[in-house]
Amino acid sequence: MKPDMFKEPVSILVGLGFPAEICSVTDAYRHLCEWPVRLRDNSHAAAVKACGAALRGEIEADTARGVFAAFAAKHDLLAPESNAIAAARLSRDRDPQVR
What we know:
Blueprint lengths: L4 E10 L3 E7 H10 L7 H14 L5 H14 L7 H13 L5
Antiparallel strand pairs: 1-2
Helix pairs in contact: 1-2, 2-3
């Protein structure tokens, strides 16, 4: 495994709500660089700093993952777990009045 790979990806929503998996520090850093300047805040700065430190080998990739995941959570980017989606579909299929 490459040193910048996460043990577990961070699933985020991009574009019009499409899920994407961020699997490495490089992916996270790329996403952060594309984040609109007007929306950048302290959580963005912390995530960029953590990703830079991980790319330089100063911290573990999964430490940067945690900071990136916190940034994503703060900005409501985390994709719902597939189990939650499946459960919602299952309950909708069982009870057609649930929509």
